[in-house]
Write a structure and sequence with these properties.
Blueprint lengths: L3 H7 L3 E7 L2 H5 L12 E2 L3 E7 L5 E2 L8 E6 L7 E9 L12 E3 L3 E9 L2 E6 L4 E7 L5 H31 L6 H23 L6 H34 L5 H26 L21 H27 L7 H31 L4 H12 L1 H11 L2 H37 L6 H9 L10 H9 L1
Antiparallel strand pairs: 1-3, 2-10, 3-4, 3-10, 5-9, 6-7, 6-10, 8-9
Helix pairs in contact: 3-4, 3-9, 3-10, 4-5, 4-10, 5-6, 5-7, 5-8, 7-8, 8-9, 8-10
Length: about 450
Amino acid sequence: NLPAEVFVRTRATRYAVAVLSGIGDLLGPSSSLVPGETILPNTRLMTVVVTSRNGTKVQVDNLTQPIMLTMNHVNTTYQRIPTCAFYNFANLTTNGTGVIGWDGTGLMTETESSGNGQTVCRTTHLTSFSVLMASGMPDKDHRTALMVISYTGSVISILCLFTMVFIFIHEKTLHTDVNAIHCNLAMSLGMGQLLFLIGIQLTNDQDLCTGIAIVLHYLFLAAFMWMLVEGIHVYTMLVQVFQSGLKRFRVYYIAAYGVPMLIVLITAVRNNADDYGNDEYCWLKVTSGSRWAFHAPVLVIAVANVIVLGVVVKVLVQRSRRRNSNSEETIKASVKGALFLLPLLGITWAIGILAEGHDTLALHYLFVLFNTLQGVFIFLFHGLRNHQVRTILVRYCSCRRQGKSDSSTSYVNTSTSDQTLRSRPQPLTDSTHFSTSTSTGRTLSDSSSGGGEDVTKV
């Protein structure tokens, strides 16, 4: 609604509002409104025109009572530094030359009233308005480099994780409680990274993108839950030696896979799954509060794991003077791996949270590098640090090389033998040749003594 001042001062009788799509992209970005930032239009262009009774356009400016404009954001990726601006044609000369562009004079961005995909602007004049914002994303060249790093690291991590899963399942000697937890951790994270690799950018189909975002949310939460389960299991091994392992693992499976499912269901039902997927990627929307449906559980799990592992380390230090048992050696090995991986994964997602709203290239590169190589670190600390796993890998590689060597040797020996038989002279005598060719009922030994001996050798 326009204030009465507009019509009293200008004697205007009517006004019109045009909201235009795609015009902001044609008008381009601004590098002068915010020092050191390039911001782009992120709302439709809103043009307000006031006319007199005869249809003449009336200039409206220097209002004492500001006009409030509420504009919806177009792209959820552009969320930083919302800046209200109008496109200033005032300096455009008749021959089309002159300095024109986005201008913030007479405009104020109401940050307190903005939010939920909208920005409120306060203006003292009427013209063509838009809200310009920074994307928080690197430019095209850096996006290409980040994509190459992401895909390469994800492929390596997926291979490491599924190799670890295969070894833990295939080798019966590795069927222990700790390895079962590591196997589920690797499976959850591996499936999540595989789906990330395949479907993170399938944004053309909104329903498919929403489904991918929901499954990714679930798998990554499950991976973090298994990290918490490992910490709890290590503590249980230390203080409750005789508790039933079967009952304990039922609780582990329910917690590790049930709690993430509950969180995802609540998040999806709360807003009819509208918080999943956007125009850029298939994940939780950065602009909505639902992103805390991932950040908050991860934060809680990390803090809980730190507390549990701290208690375990304290108990181990108190028992350090005793003679170490096999179970305590296993606990120490698990604690060492967990104490390294927990800060690594925690720092990774802390960087990811910071990178969501900033265009600092270092944050984006660090997050992509650490996030895609999580599988490699898990394989190193929960796989290769295990002596049995190393032995199995060495045995497998040795068998592969031995198989190739045996095949090559067999081929060479066969070829050499055939060549020897073809090239060896055959000293058959005339009598032998005669006896074998003309006497149908005689054997080779029935020939003459010299010839029979030679035939037997051949």
